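> agent: user asked for a holo structure of the chain below bound to zinc ion. Plan: (1) validate sequence alphabet, (2) canonicalize SMILES, (3) run complex prediction with ligand conditioning, (4) return tokens. Step 1... ok. Step 2... ok. Step 3 dispatched.
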Amino acid sequence: MIDYAHQEQWTNGFGNQQSPIHIQTSSTAAKTGPLPVTIQSAYRLNQEIDDQTTIRLTGQGQADIFSRPFSFQQVHFHAPAEHVIDGHQTPFEIHLVHQNEIGQLVVVALLVEIGTADQPCQRIIDNYAVGKTTATQLQIDQWLPQQPAGFHYLGSLTTPPLVEGVEWLVVTNPAVTIDSSQLDWFKQHFAPNNRQPQSLAGRKVESYQ
Ligand SMILES: [Zn+2]
């Protein structure tokens, strides 16, 4: 089991292009338009897995990301958020993991605030079984807004083995909020599972509106 309480002891055999990061908007390079991620085939979830430190759901879907085709593979959750923007850390972050035919990974991170309860999240909560993998049927592509705003940079997985070369799209205006009872449920079932922000080490971060 991943030990977040001693994350400074995690083995990083890679380098200094790690995730998550603390993004200072004033230091980013402004690009024109929204983040170029477009869903081509609905994101459907069919399996819910208790990963001990989070819930992971696997499924199918297709998206064009920076005009390249990617398959959606799995979604999982972090509380509190891993990415921090101008000192602000949202209480919840959703990671949509994608891969293309040559194995490149793109994670679309949704920074989730407290608001109205989300129905798919409630289904995930209601369907959860400790230590088990259960079948489910959910669609979640509606979580991505029509005009995603946020950031793009090159980083890593945020859990061991911390593999680098992972592309990140951090979405600050997702079309999903959770309510405080959903957040409380998650915090009661899982210890804080956010990796601390890592050094930017000279990397460029692009911002999109
Ligand atoms: Zn994650």
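> agent: step 4 complete. Summary for user: Helices lie at 119-127, 180-189. The chain has one domain: 35-192.
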